[in-house]
Design a protein that fits this description.
This protein is of the alpha+beta class. 48% of the residues lie in helices and 18% in strands. It is built from twelve helices and twelve strands. Strands 6, 7, 8, 9, 10 and 11 form a six-stranded antiparallel beta sheet that branches. Strands 1-2-4-3 form a four-stranded antiparallel beta sheet. The protein has a two-stranded parallel sheet with strand order 5-12. Helix 7 packs across helix 8. The two termini are 59 Å apart.
């Protein structure tokens, strides 16, 4: 069996395979012998059909079967001989098979591009600093304070003001058209909630219980409902009830109520530590994204279309699963640059795989054991139990995670990392 490969593009090759007649003859004889054992032809007992009759009746079927097997074997021979990394089903039109003639066929294969080197010398990334401002700690404490606040009606009753919790009913007209699906009754809102539509909270302030009012707003351009983006609306609101929040004092008693803290300062220190850990994880995630972007920008490689198509299909499936879990509909904006995102993922996978090969990065049993020991220490779980849990597929996933950590350690060591508040603003 002989094969030749010619490159059509960096991600597609043409393979020509030639199978000698001697190999074909043997395959035909073996297949006809197998078919003859079970052939059912009128006038003959099973297994006693003459060979020439079997060839006459089953000749086309046997030749098609042998040709299919030869193509499969020929492609496997070509892939192994020329070290091809195919990523999709081959394109091949099987030619007819003739006696006393070598069998030749041509196939087009989509392949991974050969990446002989990965340049990591020019990686520059900007990431936000992982510092936590005092204002962030104060904001978290205020959030906890509101969660543990008591609610009561003001005595005497007064108009609504910032910080109150209101119960409202409203109808909505969008650009003059009533929208019954948007109306609500007994809806609770907090005056001071940053997620309230701009102008809505302002319109509610000063309203008294039982009073009705029209509040004009304009839906934002990035509203998740495409039918409302940028459109003007009028909310006809009635204030049903009003309660004010009685915020607890920020003292040791408050710290003991919200958690196992002896003092308010202990609570504050714990919150700071958690926010710092969160900021560090956020910075690490951002750095990984930026490193991937820099790696792709520095190493421009072609990508097999079938891999992009497969990745896009997987992304769409994940998107639908997430939307179903969150109970929301998929909007057109969810599909923005889906091809570009899928292409980025494929490029990242190819480059990181090549980098692991070129750097000879491997994950052995010792590395897995070290990772499990690290997990046991950080989670407080028993190491022996973790070893039992991480078997089979979970162990393979952990192995991939450890390899990824090694890869990003290489990239971080070689990249120029700059801290910038501009990076933070760009990712908000």
């Amino acid at each position: 069996m002989h094969s030749e490969v010619s490159e059509i593009s960096p991600v597609q090759v043409e393979v020509k395979v030639q199978v000698p007649w001697e190999r074909i003859r043997k395959d035909l004889d073996l297949t006809f012998s197998r078919v003859a054992k079970t052939a059912k032809i009128k006038g003959f007992r099973p297994g006693k059909v003459p060979r020439d009759v079997v060839r006459k009746v089953y000749g086309a079927q046997v030749r098609a079967e042998v040709a299919s097997g030869l193509i499969e074997a020929g492609l496997m021979h070509a892939v192994e001989t020329h070290d091809l990394h195919i990523v999709a089903q081959p394109e091949v039109s099987p030619p007819p098979l003739f006696d006393e003639v070598d069998y030749e066929f041509t196939a087009k294969l989509e392949v991974r591009p050969k990446v002989e080197s990965v340049d990591t010398s020019k990686l520059v990334v900007k990431v936000r600093p992982s510092t936590v401002e005092e204002g962030a700690v104060d904001a978290e404490i205020e959030r906890m304070r509101k969660q543990h606040a008591d609610l009561r009606e003001p005595d005497p009753m007064r108009p609504a003001q910032h910080g109150d919790r209101l119960t409202i009913a409203y109808t909505v007209a969008v650009e003059g058209e009533e929208k019954p699906e948007l109306e609500a009754s007994s809806r609770e809102v907090d005056l001071g909630d940053d997620e309230l539509l701009e102008g809505f909270a302002t319109g509610l302030r000063g309203l008294s219980v039982g009073e009705e009012k029209d509040i004009e707003i304009t839906f934002p351009e990035d509203h998740p409902n495409p039918d409302l983006k940028g459109k003007a609306a009028v909310f006809h609101v009635k204030l049903e009830s009003l309660r004010e929040l009685l915020l607890p004092e920020l003292d040791d008693e408050f710290a003991q109520d919200v958690g196992s803290f002896e003092t308010f300062e202990a609570l504050r220190a714990d919150l700071r530590k958690k926010l710092e850990d969160l900021a560090t994880r956020r910075r690490e995630a951002e750095m990984k994204d930026k490193l991937i972007d820099a790696l792709i920008e520095t190493n421009d490689i072609p990508v097999p279309p079938s891999l992009v198509k497969e990745e896009k299909r997987g992304m769409l499936y994940q998107m639908m699963q997430f939307a179903q879990m969150m109970g929301r509909q998929i909007s057109p904006s969810d599909f923005d640059d889906l091809d570009g995102k899928a292409t980025r993922r494929v490029k990242a996978g190819i480059l990181l795989g090549a980098l692991a090969r070129l750097e000879k990065l491997e994950v052995d049993d010792a590395a897995i054991d070290a990772k499990l020991a690290e997990m046991a220490e950080s989670t407080g779980k028993n190491l022996a139990k973790l070893r039992v849990e991480y078997q089979g597929e979970r162990r393979d996933q952990l192995q991939s995670q450890v390899l990824e950590e090694k890869l990003f350690a290489v990239l971080r060591d070689r990249a120029t990392i700059e801290e910038s508040t501009e990076a933070a603003e760009a990712t908000e």
